[in-house]
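Researcher: Please generate the 3D structure of the following complex. Treat every line as part of one assembly.
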Amino acid sequence: MPSCKRQLAVYLVTDRDLTRGRDLIESVLDAVQGGVTMVQLREKHTPAREFTQLARQLMRALAPYKIPLIINDRVDIALAVRASGAHIGQSDIPAADARRLLRRAILGVSVQNADEAREAEKTGADYLGAGVAYATGTKTDYQGTIGAEGVRAICEAVRIPVAAIGGINAANIGELAAIPRLAGASVVSAILSAEDIRAAARELRSLWDGAPCRSQNT
Amino acid sequence: MPSCKRQLAVYLVTDRDLTRGRDLIESVLDAVQGGVTMVQLREKHTPAREFTQLARQLMRALAPYKIPLIINDRVDIALAVRASGAHIGQSDIPAADARRLLRRAILGVSVQNADEAREAEKTGADYLGAGVAYATGTKTDYQGTIGAEGVRAICEAVRIPVAAIGGINAANIGELAAIPRLAGASVVSAILSAEDIRAAARELRSLWDGAPCRSQNT
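Model: Done. Output below.
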């Protein structure tokens, strides 16, 4: 499997409750046109049948853009719609099972410290989601933020690429972009809830790419 | 795949909230020793990681008994633990996707009328769960009961085996057992919440097997 490192740069994670009533597919396409490099469909409150339909629609919508679509939690749905991969958390299906079922598709794992990061890497994760980076209203079940220092410690613990997640926006993405080994930033509300989704994605992408350490790193 | 018709006779569906504090694995084994013919792990409120662990434990515990274990909703977890199959409802992963992912493993589909039954059969279901048969406190999201007549209509609409589900207990299983084409009855609380789980399973199995139309039918 090719590394997904470059595609993690500005990684949009969805939440239909945050689009301010706008259609999710349209919102994702706006974000992609603004410069988002990868998309994760994460809809915790959507029944599996509807979630599968949404995943299929998004696969079709994203096809012309060559943007990978990752499915949160449901490995079966990732396989059913032939998504690029699946992303799981610490209370989802075990990483070893997900790895085996996904074969060569991308497996992302959420971690909050270096121990979980090493464990996930050992189990065959292709990339890690490191967080919760900053305080966020999107996830309500997290156990405190790890900040840029926590993200840096996770990057240093593993060789696979890492994307930070949690409360990332235009005001703090620069602090993360300054971590040389960090591959990307996952964003939810700073893009999906923005007045102008495309402009918000463009700004985040530009802040990420423009950080001093990025030119020699990518 | 061999037909699962005979194994549907008394089909235990789990719910940890109904065991009155008793261990789920122990409770299932008691039910199996009482005469339950098939088991479905259905734990709607359990995170996927814990659900997978429970499924693995149950696979090991059931192995000596040759009792099929069916996993509710999560096809990926059914595949991960190599369960006998998966059971899905109308708002779970689409039946066509489940069928493809499960390959030759058993696929059960919940239906509430003849149209859904024919559709599920066409899509490749191996058996149907027909309900909600009688009023039940176990499921709170159902749209009214279909009674023995509704179960009979579903049986007559398809060729694959059907198990009734919903509010089935010692007082009403006889009415269902009198439907010649019905392959079985799925039971939740009448077994798991019984004072003596083994005795409750034994009684239901005996009422099922002893019904007048059963001897020539099986």
